[in-house]
Design goal:
Length: 359
């Protein structure tokens, strides 16, 4: 019960809330004694801090002390494994803001391996008091189940127990999630993300993540979000590495689109390619929009591809295939969080697990 109360209070303050103990009591329904006990323990722990006084007080009696997230005392080690030829790591605060960073650049013939991650984490933790580290967060491509990388074609890993390895080596709790899920969490809390949203990431591949009432949809086989392997042309489409034909990933990824644009003879033809790719994405989105009744579609990708023409074409086709008297308008928009999106999201993932599972 105490852990649940702590989660309720933290959720109202994260990321930028400022509330008094009285406000927290009113919004959670907890008693004054319960709120005081939870708040005092979180203050001692370094999760929250006192950040001023309630300016909306009536003027009678003592003004309430405001509580907010403490970004100065606790740390997270966050690692992003989703980028090509680059491993990024950072020490962040509770809001995922990097305080110290480190990168490992890889040559075209070098692959990421587990020893690199151990080395990176080891270097990042050197100058930090171990008592202030609440966990390690990893954003990885592929299917992740309980800290095990079940399948990552990009990383070339299969059934790698990365969490177990890191926890045995460092002794901190380790949280590993798909990089698209991590990016979605960053957009939810630091961009314009709704509590229910579809997040699409276009890069070397194309992936999706779904949030329903602030709960991430993982799927029974931990593979929720594999939108790239929805087949739009199973009869005559391009053969996909997954074995099917006409998968979205053979049509709408950065390398595929850029190669098509490179071969185009005129600027107008290039623009038509961008628009057609937006329409193909909309075709894959139509069913989850109708099934889940989601109004917020966020697309993350390089600006030369996820540009105004792409988003306008996607929006037009989404409106055409999903609008009805039962479903109000679904907005297709560009992601508002830029660099470090996966790093920040993996840090938020650690914070959520820490709050929910105790310390």
């Amino acid at each position: 019960m105490r852990r649940n109360n702590r989660s309720l209070v933290f959720g109202l303050l994260f990321p930028n809330g400022q509330l008094s103990r009285a406000d927290l009591g009113r919004q959670t329904g907890l008693s004054r004694v319960a709120i005081s006990g939870v708040a005092n323990s979180m203050l001692d722990e370094g999760l929250i801090c006192e950040s001023g006084f309630d300016v909306n007080a009536s003027g009678k009696g003592k003004r309430g002390t405001l509580l907010s997230i403490d970004t100065s005392r606790l740390h997270i080690i966050s690692v992003d494994l989703s980028q090509e030829h680059l491993v990024q790591g950072a020490v962040t605060d509770l809001l995922g803001t990097p305080q110290q960073r480190m990168e490992m650049a890889l040559g075209p013939d070098n692959d990421i391996n587990a020893d690199m991650i151990v080395q990176l984490v080891d270097q990042l933790r050197t100058d930090i008091d171990a008592d202030t580290i609440i966990g390690i967060g990893i954003a990885a491509t592929g299917v992740v189940e309980d800290g095990v990388i079940r399948e990552s074609t990009v990383l070339g890993w299969r059934d790698l127990d990365l969490r177990g390895m890191l926890e045995r080596r460092f002794g901190f709790p380790v949280t590993i999630s798909n990089d698209v899920v991590c990016s979605m969490l960053a957009e939810r809390f630091f961009g314009h993300g709704d509590k229910s949203m579809l997040f699409i990431k276009i890069d070397r591949g194309i992936g999706a993540a779904t949030l329903i009432d602030d709960v991430t949809v993982i799927g029974q086989n931990h593979a929720g979000g594999e939108i790239g392997h929805i087949s739009l042309d199973p009869e005559s489409g391009v053969l996909c590495p997954c074995g099917k034909r006409g998968c979205l990933e053979t049509m709408v990824t950065s390398p595929v689109i850029r190669e098509r644009i490179r071969r185009a003879s005129t600027p107008e033809e290039q623009l038509d390619i961008i628009r057609s790719c937006g329409e193909q994405l909309a075709a894959a989105l139509a069913m989850p929009i109708g099934l889940l009744d989601i109004n917020d579609i966020c697309v993350y990708g390089p600006p030369d591809i996820v540009n105004a023409a792409f988003l306008e074409a996607t929006q037009r086709r989404v409106d055409m295939v999903s609008s009805s008297k039962f479903h109000k308008h679904t907005s297709v928009r560009r992601c508002q969080v830029g660099s470090d999106i996966a790093l920040r999201g993996s840090a938020i993932d650690v914070v959520h697990h820490y709050i929910e599972n105790g310390h």
